[in-house]
Amino acid sequence: MKIIDGKALAAKMRAQLKEKIDASELKPGLAVVLVGEDPASQIYVRNKIKACEEIGVKSYAYRLPADTSQKQLEDLLEELAASKDIHGILLQLPLPKGLQAEPAMAKIPYEKDVDGFSKENLGKLVLKEDGLVSCTPYGVMKMLESEGISPKGKRAVVLGRSDTVGKPMALLLLNADATVTVCHSKTQNLKEICQEADILVAAIGRAKFVTEDMVKEGAVVVDVGINRDENGKLCGDVDYENVAKKASYITPVPGGVGPMTITMLMYNTCLAAFESI
Ligand code: NAP
Question: Could you tell me what percentage of the chain is helix, strand and coil, using 3-state DSSP and rounding each to the nearest 5?
Answer without folding.
Answer: 40, 15, 40
